[in-house]
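Per reviewer request, we include the raw input and output of the structure prediction for the construct analysed in the revised manuscript.
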Amino acid sequence: MSRDVNTSFARVLVDEWVRGGVTNAVIAPGSRSAPIALALAANARIAVHVILDERSAAFVALGLGRATGRPAVVLTTSGTAAANLHPAILEAHHGRVPLIACTADRPPELRDTGAPQTIDQVRLFGTAVRWFVDAEVPADRLDAGPAWRALGARSVAEAIGSTPGPVHLNLPLREPLVPTGEPFVGAPGRADGRPWTEFSEPPRRLLDSSEIDELATRVLAEPRGLVICGWGSRVSTETVHRFARASGWPIIADPLSGVSGDECVSAYEALARTERFTSSHAPRVAWRVGAPLTSTTFARWLDTAGTEITIVERGLGRCDPSHSAVAVIDADADDLLIAIAARLEALAPDRDRSWADEWTTADARALKAIDTALDGWPECSEPRTARDLMAQLPADATLVVASSMPIREVEWFGRPGSRWVIANRGVNGIDGFVSTVLGVALGTVGPVVALTGDLSFLHDAGGLLAAKGTSVDVVFVVVDNRGGGIFSFLPQANHPEHFETLFGTPPTVDIGVLAAAHGFSVRSVGTPPELAGALVAAMAEPGPSVVLVVTDRARNVEHHRAVWDAVASAFSDG
């Protein structure tokens, strides 16, 4: 008796994804992928989002993974459709975001024959995936059910493992690609909704008491230290603050780390640029969890000062581009820092905090100088936009920040508080930003606001079409400085004869008109009070909207220099 093999395989695969915790799938329309798409649409336990552009679809799935911590499935047909997933897969790989990339393919007999819409999809994404499988063509065999279920269960487990990331399932399918009405292949799952195979993570490495004693002694012996938290730190604010209080060290926390509080130094970029401070406050040691700070100025200062950096990183997934670390401790940061803090509290309950107090006092002085400078300009400046935006967001809001200048403005001038700040810092690209924001909004409860430059917004113009289709409530604050603002701070600015053509690249598209054509409401502002009012109005209305902040690239450079000069002047009197 003939049975509907493709539909059976697809429904079993989707069922195992759901059993593993997958709740979202992003589908780019196509023919060869029809069995999987129909199975996803037929499963009420999974939310399906249809995005026309495969690159945009992949970044929407990436944003969902960032927001939820669970892999979203992104499904494409064969050929160049599959290749368009590569940028998002690279970001997921380097940014440690769970993702299941599912590409339909021609069966083996049609590969390398000139068949249409057929490319070599085997290991298409190279080493950028946690796991790759070129699956067998579904067939009606006695062991088909267990094999299909094992494939689905493992794909989820690999994506959410100890180092989350993307997996790639390449699925060759023969016609017919739509349900035939014939019986299904019997492939029942485990009882009680369990995955076919349950995978256990490796146990956390717990340091023994002698190792904790040794590390606590090292911390105790050095009062001039720092706790640095970068993106991907996976450590709680409570843990970091307890360690900071016990060690007497201040906290330097990138807004992307999720760590905030009174012991955190916000103006570390400004302090690292102030010679009066750096000459007397060079730290001798620093313990870092997560990736390096966005600030290269601060990192260069630590290198110049000869600061000994210890990285706490589970799995030894090094992130040390300056090759400056003297040690990497393979341990869970929460477990380790709490254990050391407890030992320090017992050994030195009255730990001297004068070093940390000097940093927080300096931070307050720098912040006051920054605020005075920013408040002195009547027009919108990019530094003030970042500061005011973060200050105005409600506590339950999520801020998604684009690469290039926006993420730096947020780091240098924003006061993160307890708000969740997200950015694509795996490979630091501007591509796919609009789509990433949509994915975050689809997977997040609470307001979602994005801060981006004009080029980053336009680079993902395909995401605007996706936004119209998803009907999410999201506000894009777009800094329109007519080009690539970061290049005005780089050596390329010293070559004016080719600067605008090659680096400034002012867009020829009116962002407001483009956004409005895609169904966005658009508000253009030029002063800080206008920005505040436009943001309130945009967050109160449904659907996607743009708040267009008009600035000038040349003035932006002047604004930054004026802020750094103001901070230096604040420290000039001792």
